[in-house]
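Colleagues,

For the teaching module next term, I've prepared a clean inverse folding example: a structure given as tokens, and then the sequence designed for it. I'd like students to try predicting residues themselves before seeing the answer, so please don't circulate the second half yet.
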């Protein structure tokens, strides 16, 4: 039986880095005390996901793993999305206010996360999480180290929560549930908010508690400024580099002619650029904006959450 498992395992990894896969098995056995035959058996049954791998091979290409601002706006800030978000807020208002009270997080932002990530659980993905993570962990790509760690987290999560590792489905990148949590995020921030004894990323109430817990532990300040529009609107802003992690003194921005159109209470600001078809806008992001982008490293994502929360 052991020989059969070994043969299947190496057949599955025929084109992968077998040294790396063997290192992975040894790590899971020695460091995390998994049964060797179990890990080999699991990996022998994963299927290489070619479509997912193509998204991460080579240099980053816009639109392959994230969307442009125009795309975000077109798909997120729709009348139907806003209508659904308001209906969800009414339906789960008691749970949302409980999360807001316990974690000191603005409830409209919790709603926005659930809307953007899965349309409140309607679209949680149908990719095998095992196939996605094993493919990206063992086949060369620009984020291989990250997915190698997430594959480890998947094994640990499945053991801790008694999950069938083969039945878990999610996004092409291995994100699961209502707020599309990677295994490491679910292990660290997932909560049993409905008190049924299970931290279930597919349960709406648990998802509400989990995203609130994530925001709070990453530094969210309830009621604080998230983003403010500046006076710049033009063809091309080139004075400074703009991104969700590019931070400048507000005094420096003022010297360059960049001023917030509303009160911005911080001395430092993240400089954010939104690209439209014929012009650009520059915004200043506060500490809460940076917290949003710790969940998804994208200015467009952060602004999508910000705008939707305000529309709600």
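(Answer key — instructors only)
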């Amino acid at each position: 039986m052991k020989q059969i498992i070994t043969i299947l395992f190496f057949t599955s990894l025929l084109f992968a880095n077998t040294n790396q896969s063997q290192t992975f098995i040894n790590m899971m056995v020695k460091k995390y005390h998994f049964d060797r035959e179990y890990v080999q058996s699991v990996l022998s049954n994963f299927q290489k996901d070619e479509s997912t791998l193509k998204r991460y091979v080579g240099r980053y290409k816009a639109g392959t793993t994230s969307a442009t601002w125009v795309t975000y706006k077109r798909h997120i800030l729709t009348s139907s999305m806003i209508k659904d978000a308001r209906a969800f807020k009414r339906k789960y208002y008691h749970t949302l206010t409980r999360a807001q009270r316990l974690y000191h997080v603005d409830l409209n932002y919790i709603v926005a996360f659930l809307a953007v990530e899965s349309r409140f659980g309607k679209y949680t993905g149908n990719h095998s999480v095992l196939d996605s993570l094993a493919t990206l962990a063992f086949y060369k790509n620009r984020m291989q180290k990250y997915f190698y760690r997430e594959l480890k987290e998947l094994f640990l999560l499945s053991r801790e929560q008694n999950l069938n590792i083969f039945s878990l489905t999610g996004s092409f990148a291995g994100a699961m549930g209502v707020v599309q949590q990677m295994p490491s995020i679910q292990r660290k921030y997932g909560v049993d908010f409905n008190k049924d004894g299970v931290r279930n990323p597919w349960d709406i109430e648990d998802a509400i508690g989990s995203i609130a817990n994530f925001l709070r532990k990453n530094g969210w300040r309830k009621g604080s400024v998230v983003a403010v529009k500046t006076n710049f609107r033009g063809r091309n802003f080139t004075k400074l580099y703009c991104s969700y992690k590019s931070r400048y003194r507000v005094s420096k921005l003022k010297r360059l002619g960049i001023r917030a159109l509303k009160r911005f209470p911080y001395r430092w600001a993240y400089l954010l650029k939104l690209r439209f078809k014929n012009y650009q806008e520059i915004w200043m992001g506060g500490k809460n904006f940076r917290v949003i982008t710790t969940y998804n490293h994208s200015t467009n994502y952060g602004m999508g959450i910000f705008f939707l929360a305000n529309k709600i």
